[in-house]
Amino acid sequence: MIHHEHHIKDLQCGTCTCGLCCTRIQNFGVTRGNTEILKDVNLHIHCGELTALIGPNGAGKSTLLKAIIGEIPHTGVLTFLDAKEKNTGRPLIGYVPQRLDFDSGSPASVKDLFSSAFTNSPIWFAYKKEINRKAYESLAQVQAEHLLNKRLGTLSGGELQRVLLALALDPVPDLLLLDEPVSGIDQNGLRLFYKIVSGLRESYDLSIILVSHDLRLVAQYADRVAFINNKTVECCGTPAEVFSNEKVIDLFNLDWPKIYTGADGEEE
Amino acid sequence: MSLWYGLVDILLPFAWAHHIFMKNALLGILLVTPVFGMLGTMIVNNRMAFFSDALGHSALTGIAIGVIAGIKNPLWSMVLFSMLLAAAIIVVKNANTASTDTIIGVFSSTAVALGVVILSRNGGFTKYSVYLIGDLLSISPSDLLLLLIVFAAVIVLWAFIFNKLLIVSINQSLAGSRGINVPAFEYTFTMIMAVIVTISIQWVGILIISSMLVLPAAAARNISKNMRQYHAYSVSIALISGLSGLILSYFWGTATGATIVLIAALFYFVTLVLRASLAG
Questions:
Q1: What ipTM was estimated for this complex?
Q2: Can you give the pTM of this predicted structure?
């Protein structure tokens, strides 16, 4: 459950880049069974910004996303202020999961996925033309329209990620949560994904939280980085700030200048 | 019913279709196999074959409870018990204590053992053995009415819930983020399964009920590229296996349910070869 507490007064959104909307995560904590997974997590997500979550495996990055969508119970408050500085309660969230739950042999196609999300009229009976068109348009935004009739199981990691991104963008969310797979996506696919996400942030003025495993791409595309370690956000700021933090350097064995030159060198 | 009998006499002027019990069984097959084919698509997608098997086994305990309670027709105690069992399995599964197949195995074997213990008291188990292989030829007009109602109800429900069920099966968090009440759909689906499995047990038999659900969909999966094809093939394979199984069992003098399963299995192996040759 997401708790709707209304602290409109102390939620003046002065630091937003566009000054119109923002999402605040305050004192988030998650405990499953007897294990505390997250505590005292505070994040201020500005709209039009890409915030990357980095940290060691098992630090609770995916858990934080699942708590935000309300799947995992949590303590603390999630507040969203829309363009009129009004507390609208729960933001509309788009979510791209890390992976799919079923096996690659399933006959479910990309069209099946979109149709079943967009309409209640049973897809085992007939596909609707206007839904097909809508799905095609959604996919075109992420350069994936050629995948419409493919089975989900035959997509590459990068293709699947873009398809799920297109789905998460319809309806256009207030907050976009992306859980990147640890592996299985080739460098080109990953780069394309970051490019598309980075473009979306500007065209839709979205607040984006991205769980990332590729520090070089984070350095290049993220506006803000939150380092999650020891159950909480240990460090948060611009990529340059976070990547010069000692704990971060220690954990990732960072060679900071190399990351920057590497990223710059590959820029087109 | 006389309308149906007349229709069969006109359409199927064969010796085997002359008997009333064959006409009843024919109608039964036409009603129940499409439902098996439809539900099977989601059972296979969700890797719930073992779960459907457990539901079938729980029927024994349902009968036993009916016997203790002194109910003449154990159908209602069977339905109730298998729904309870299905709910219990989901609750324990969602608590994440052990892997799903272990949990289903524990519940299933407990249910079977409990049923056998109660029913075998005073050595009277043999009279219940009809439930093990089922007897489709004993289906009566009142059974058919029940089947017709269930058939209509499942198709209507399926039309309403299928799209959402598919998203839930693709990724639960994704479904949740789109405002879908995941547990509600999970429970609805398992309850439908529990009811269908239990109602069909007396005609299909505990031993092969899950094969009836799984085989047509598993075969269809080999040759389908999307959900509509998957449904069309699965329902067709279920229907064809059902009809041909009924006719063959008449001539061979074999148990109808098992004959149907053999034909569905044949479909599975043929489509498996087809898939390999399509891919290669």
A1: 0.86
A2: 0.86
